[in-house]
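Hi D.,

Good news: the full-assembly prediction came through. Inputs first.
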Amino acid sequence: MSIVETQTLTRRFGALIAVHGLTIGVEAGEAFGLLGPNGAGKTTTIKMLTTLLPPTGGTARVAGYDIVREAADVRRVVGYVPQLISADGNLTGYENLLIFAKLYDLPRAGRETRVRDALAFMGLADAAGKLVRGYSGGMIRRLEIAQSMLHRPHVLFLDEPTVGLDPGARNAVWDHIERLRRDHGTTVILTTHLMEEADSLCSRVAIMHLGMVAAIGTPGTLKAQVGGSETTLDDVFMHYTGGGLSSGGSYRETSRARRVARRLG
Amino acid sequence: MRLHARDASPGGWVDGAPSTRTNPLRALVRFVEKTFVIAELEARKLRHDPTELITRAVQPILWLMVFGQVFTRVRAIPTGDVRYIDFITPGILAQSVVFIAIFYGISVIWERDLGILQKFLVSPAPRTALVLGKALSAGVRGLSQAVIVYILALLLGVQMNWHPLALAGVLLTVLLGATFFSTFSLIIACLVKSRERFMGIGQLMTMPLFFASNAIYPIAIMPAWLRVISHVNPLTYEVDALRALMLAGGSSTYSVGFDLGVLFAATTILITVAGSLYPRIAV
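Then the structure:
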């Protein structure tokens, strides 16, 4: 029984087919990675599953709800951390969470505790009263994850959660994602370019190329399929996406990614 | 087999937010609640950084102290038995509110570029509440302009109406006007989607809106074609209501009730349109 199921899910932008007949299932409690070069359709997939973007073909269910017909229900049970920075720099960390606690109808009685707990869980208790403008990149990401898990979502979508972070901050974010999954059974679906990230976090990965799934399985099986014991997930990635030198990444996408990297770094 | 929210609590941790399928009254309460959450968010940002309120004060000061005083002396514009400075004061308040509101859409494009907006759109809050909350916060900024205009009016000896009911009426009119024009601005933002294009269109609209209204001269002295335009310009009705409510012995051309009715109806339509367009900006 899959908590996220897609059935020939498709999204076109004019002549471009960003996601092309995607059919995957993600099990409850899994950490599932969507890998692929720029323009492979990872972000578009996540945008459809979080109801930000309507599909142009196919269907998908998240926690049992149809992403088109029951979009409002889907929104209640998912959490989302966009690739871009979504915390508001002109508010304190506490305020960022408080506003979302109110938007998600958390009962007034436990709201304060829930916000404080989430901040403590992400190691931000001391910085709670400071404006987010002054946070480091890793702190912003952790705050955003705290924000997205406040309402205790069934499925948490993370779009390139560690882009632009230094190795130390990246490890801290990985630890927190892993703890979230382990302690609370939250299903995590993340996109990444980093094979290391997929290898250490994900129970299963799907390698996307040109809007389609090129390979799917545990990091171990994928490595075994491609080569011997020395194979890394990087090799698997190159094997299925053909090196990716010529592929994807529009001007707009690239400038956004660099801007995020600059603001986080 | 379909998996439903209540079945899927692997760690016993999941609760999500309460279902959105409730009766209309609860839906309305939720709508109002969420609207105020968004307005609260904007108010908190203003509290952390109030510089904007101070820089915004410059424009009404220039219009009233310079333009208003000079043209009062020239007596070029026939305003009946009302002094020109009295005539223009409500007009300048309405105008400063429009100028704040009309560029409001750009903040939404900015938030989209930052990534803040997407997170709101993924939340279960009704989209119309997200729009109205934004628009109301433009109203809060508009009220700060009202304070400045009232102080200036005192300094310039404008005969103001200080009756609490009249003041409440001004407050309501400013909120409605700001809500209308900022929602209008949000709709444009949802259509053009980029800051550069928005700036161009914003510049293009403000002046015609301002000049094709009764803000700084009476409709009676306009050429016929301009009169027609000014009658479909909501700013005219905002100014008309303000003129009746702000000035001692002020009177309105169309009646305050009609003015507010027009603004309210126009705002309701725009909010509905904006609510359905809002998600497009994230694409």
